Amino acid sequence: MNLHALRLFTKVAELKSVSKAAQALMISQPAVTIQIRNLEKDLELTLLESKGRGITLTQNGEFLFKQAQRLFDLELDIENKLEQLKNTGNEELQIASTHVPSHFLLPKWLANYKQAFPNSYIHIKTANSQQVIEELLHYKADLAFIVKEDGHHPDINYQFLINLDYWFIVPYGHPMADQTVTLAELMQQPFVSREDGSSTKEFLNALCKIHKIPPPRVGLQLDGINESIHAIAAGYGTMLAPSIAASSFIQRQQVAKVFIKDIDIQRPIYLCTRKNEQNISAAFHSFIDIINDSINRI
């Protein structure tokens, strides 16, 4: 496959325009068109179709575009890691994580790792589960941590680490505080919800669907666990929260649990890596060993 032609195709697919791609790459529009036609001929596939004054991707084109993005992201990742090795002699470990592992589990694991390897370099990005998987797939992260029951990506390995209890919480002094109610009754309360792409939001909607009740009315939407629990502590709404995050607020009598008849919730935390990954760094293996050792001590 002609990688130069593939790079041109990727830019066209990204901008949805041959002319805009040619302008961005500072080459002529006919040159771009010829390269893409040659690529289609070599692959024996149609990648682009005309749509009005622009273009659209065929199904084959969509597939190639996604794979090409990952290929060129890998190229950039290699360049960045070589630059790190040249400048520091160490490869930086890039981690992507959803909020719960990032705030409540990774700090201890990373502290243990840094004590063992003080010269190591680590960067963490915290995001929702959908964004975290994208970071991993596109080589923006070397490994990832998510809380998610299903919808696993076929190109990702999921190593189960631990189950966490999840609780429904309300402000301290709320009429439902420390009471046992039905899920349908609780869903009538205004909820503090996470953003789209959050696995907790997806889980709550799925739970309602299983029990054949309407999803909760969202009264407030926030992007983080801590922000959401603080809103509850301030006196508004209810939410589904990990026990590891909510327990200190309960101890301080800022929030309270609500018990749901016949429902106890545990959610799994996974360590995620790309499938068929070769030449994984020593830093990666060392960090995994420290995590597994910490889990085994629980």
UniProtKB/TrEMBL annotation:
The keyword Glycoprotein does not apply. Pfam families: HTH_1 (PF00126), LysR_substrate (PF03466). PANTHER family: HTH-TYPE TRANSCRIPTIONAL REGULATOR, HTH-TYPE TRANSCRIPTIONAL REGULATOR GLTR. Residues 1-58 form the HTH lysR-type domain. Belongs to the LysR transcriptional regulatory family. This is LysR family transcriptional regulator. Keywords: DNA-binding, Transcription, Transcription regulation. Coiled coil: none annotated. InterPro entries: LysR_HTH_N (IPR000847), LysR_subst-bd (IPR005119), WH-like_DNA-bd_sf (IPR036388), WH_DNA-bd_sf (IPR036390).
